[in-house]
Structures are given as C-alpha cells and as structure tokens.
Write a structure and sequence with these properties.
395 residues, mainly beta, eight-stranded mixed sheet, 29 strands
Length: 395
C-alpha cells in the first residue's frame, strides 16, 4: 500500500473518530439536559399516588360526597378568570359561595366582558372583539390578555380599558401580575422579539429581552423562568425552552411527544404530560423539571389545578368517540369530548379522593379554579362556568 493511501486512510479514520466523539458528546449533553426518568436511572424512584378508591372501575360503588354543582354563567363563555380578594380567615370557612370579595369574570363570543351576578350577569366591557383565539388572565385577575386574529389585546379590569399590542402573537403574565411578556413579530423579517412590559406602572414601559425565531409556541411564566411551550402533539417530540429572567439566558428545559406543562402558583411544582411509547404519562416535577411523583392517571394539565397542597383534576372515565382518542391532539382539536370524574390529589399525603362522580349530568371540565369552598370549571359541552361545592378547603 502506498504512502499516500496510508495517509488518506488515516485522515478518514480520524474524521470518523472525531464524528463519533462529537455525536456521543451531543447525546450526553442531551441526557444531562433532559429531566431524569421517573424510575431506575436516578436511583430514586418517583412517588406514586395511592388511591382510596378504584378509578374507572365500579364507579357507582365509590363512596363520594353528595355533589352540589350548578351553572354560574348565564351564557356560553370563551374563557373565565377570578379577581382575587385578599385572603382572610372568613375566606377559608365553608360557605356555598366564592371566597368573600372574589369576582368571577368571563368573556363571551362577541368579546364582551361580564361579571357573574347570580343569573343576571353584569357587562363591564362592551367593546366587540372578533375572532378570539385565546384568553389569559393575570394571577390576580386584574388584567386579561386576549388573542384576536393576528394580534393580542390587553384589558384592564379596574380601568375598563383596552390596549392593543401591535404585532403581538402570544404572552404571559409575571407571577406578581405586575409585568407582561409577549412575543412581537418584527416587520420585514421572520425574527420575533420577546418583549417585557411593565403593566403596573402609570406609564407602561417596554424592553426587548431577546430576538430569535421561536416557531409555534405559547408563553408561560413561573418562578424566575419564562417558558416557550411547544404546540402539543403526539406526532412529534416537542422541545420546551426556558428563559431565565435573572441570568438572562435561554436554555433547553424538557422534551417529549405530546408535551404539556402547567405550574403551581408558587412555581415550585409542575404537572407534566407526555407520551411514552404512545402511552400517556402524568408526573409532578420540581422547578428544574425533575420528576417527584407519578400521578398515575390519564388526564391533561389543562384539566387540573393546584390549590395549596392539593391538586384537583378532572379525570376522564370515557370519551364520546368510537375509539380511544389520540391525546392530546383529538382533545385539543375538540374531536373528542370526555365524561369526567373530579378528584382531589393530596401532594402531602400522596393519595387522591373523589370529589365529584358523574350521574345524569355529563361534564367535560377544563380551567379548574378554587374559590372559597367551590371548585369552578368550564364545561366543554355547553361552554358555561360551573361551581362545585366541595367538603375540604386547602390552605
């Protein structure tokens, strides 16, 4: 073999070895960035919730409290939220009403904003808003962000005024409700700005945090991180990235088929849904995305709500489709509707108990929120707000 051939073979082998090294280094970095699996490889198995009853089997035999549930809104709604009153001892007492001072507000199909008033709801925002595609409220309920067509608009509940956010795509409120972050398209380019807006100050100022191409994402803000949530689908591996507001850095946070993530109000616990070999998994994770508990039921984060040490979840016991729906796609596209039981999961005791079991009335519950001793939710069958009186109140 000639000297030139030997040199050529050596170069090829060297490039191949370097390629393998780069590949395995990349794989290793992905393993480090991904949240650890719930069992095995971390050496610390995740907690599994224990049931006080058999979920989905012998439903009629489950001992559940007598449910007191009633419609609260006098018309269908596109979204609702609660303007929270400061908590007092009275707001924690058992009463068949929202916590004292809480206001239940909603937006209808015309974009009009109402306050629930015992069957005679009061309009507080009369301006028409067309083609509503999404509604988000601030944690204190005093601002609401509405996605309308190709723009977003901000409504101030106290001032009863609208503000257009030009070229806005989607947004999220800070945990203290004083700031808003939103994605804004740049004219003449595919790049998008991540804009921070001070909404509590009399003169609202803005600053651009980063500029990049974010794709089809929705924003969330929990703790010190702004999350870029991918559009969830079982057909691809979604990647979730997070912007650290203190370090001002953007980094990978989690991935998975059908990935969905929701956070507790204090930002310490998340509820993560994803598919493992096509099978739905629901886990509790800490603020770093590390699995802390196996919830062990097949439902979506949009059908659950944190309240203190409790997690309330609407758990489907059946669907109206001829075959099992593809989650989360079929549900989010309204190609399938569920019949739900509602359970309270105690994160302190690692157990779950029935709160509501279906009888003659069917509920497909989303956007669960606790107000006083009532659990509020939207019923996808008629799009009205309902209130369910419950026995226990979480502090």
């Amino acid at each position: 073999m000639s000297r030139k051939k030997n040199i050529a073979i050596f170069v090829i082998l060297t490039v191949f070895a370097l390629g393998l090294g780069v590949y395995f280094a990349w794989r290793k970095s992905r393993e480090i960035l991904n949240p650890p699996p719930p069992t095995g490889e971390t050496g610390l198995p995740a907690v599994t919730f224990r049931s006080t009853s058999t979920l989905g089997e012998g439903v009629g035999a489950i001992s559940a409290p007598a449910a007191q549930v009633a419609a609260l809104s006098d018309q269908p709604v596109l979204g609702y939220w609660i303007t929270r009153a400061p908590q007092t001892s009275a707001s924690r007492t058992l009463q068949a009403a929202p916590a004292s001072g809480d206001r239940i507000l909603y937006i209808n199909e015309k974009g009009h904003i109402y306050e629930v008033k015992d069957g005679n709801d009061e309009m507080i925002g009369a301006q028409d808003v067309e083609d509503i595609r999404g509604v988000k409220s601030s944690p204190d309920g005093r601002f609401v962000l509405v996605r309308s067509g190709a723009s977003i608009r901000l409504f101030n509940i106290e001032a009863k005024t609208w503000r257009d956010l030009s070229r806005g795509i989607t947004g999220a409120f800070s945990p203290d409700s004083k700031r808003l972050v939103y994605l804004r398209a740049k004219e003449g380019t595919v790049e998008i700005d991540l804009v921070l807006r001070d909404i509590a100050a009399p003169r609202q100022t803005e600053q651009i945090l980063i500029t990049a191409f974010f794709g089809d994402v929705d924003l969330g803000w929990s703790g010190g991180k702004i999350f870029f949530n991918p559009k969830p689908s079982a057909s691809y591996d979604g990647e979730l990235w997070a912007y650290d507001t203190a370090k001002r850095t953007l980094g990978f946070f989690a991935s998975g088929d059908g990935l969905m993530l929701a956070w507790s109000p204090n930002g310490k616990t998340g509820l993560r849904f994803r598919l493992a070999s096509g099978i739905p998994e629901l886990h509790l994770v800490d603020r770093d995305g590390v699995v802390t508990a196996n919830v062990g039921v097949a439902t979506l984060p949009s059908k659950c709500s944190f309240a203190g040490d409790s997690l309330y979840c609407a758990i489907p016991i059946g669907y109206n489709s001829a075959q099992d729906p593809l989650l989360p796609d079929d549900y989010l596209k309204r190609a399938a509707y569920s019949t739900d039981s509602i359970y309270r999961l105690s994160t302190a005791e690692n157990i779950f108990d029935p709160v509501f079991l279906p009888s003659d009335t069917q509920f497909d519950a989303i956007n669960l929120q606790l107000s006083g001793n009532r659990l509020l939710f939207m019923n996808r069958y008629d799009n009205k707000i309902y209130g369910l009186v419950i026995r226990q109140i979480s502090n």
